[in-house]
Write a structure and sequence with these properties.
108 residues, 39% helix, 36% strand, four-stranded antiparallel beta sheet, Alpha-Beta Plaits, alpha+beta
Length: 108
């Protein structure tokens, strides 16, 4: 499994546009990305301009495939003018409860 957590700080006045961009992008992930297991955008209590993404992929190859999708490239381009800052942490699973079995992961 491969994952990442991304923290975005949005520019003043950009939250509605950013959230709309998420609403457009997420259905495309459902349709075209079986290897994307979790793609969640969270608001942060007390920090209205912050958004935290939690992304979990069946493999590094599934993430690489995600990055090359047309809807992802569009999201990456259109988000740039809305952002004040971005912080990314790449994650490697060492244990825990996962949404799919080990067999499903090996076959992904």
């Amino acid at each position: 499994m491969f994952g990442l957590v991304v923290r975005f700080t949005l520019k003043d006045g950009a939250t509605a546009d950013f959230d709309r961009l998420i609403q457009i992008t997420v259905p495309e992930l459902h349709r075209h990305e079986p290897g994307t297991l979790v793609y969640a955008c969270h608001t942060v209590d007390g920090a209205p301009r912050e958004r935290i993404f939690y992304e979990l992929y069946a493999s590094r190859a599934a993430f690489d495939g995600h990055e090359h999708q047309e809807h992802t490239r569009r999201f990456l381009t259109q988000r740039q003018p809305l952002l004040e800052s971005t912080h990314v942490d790449f994650l490697s699973l060492t244990g825990g409860k996962t949404p799919v079995s080990d067999t499903e992961l090996r076959n992904a």
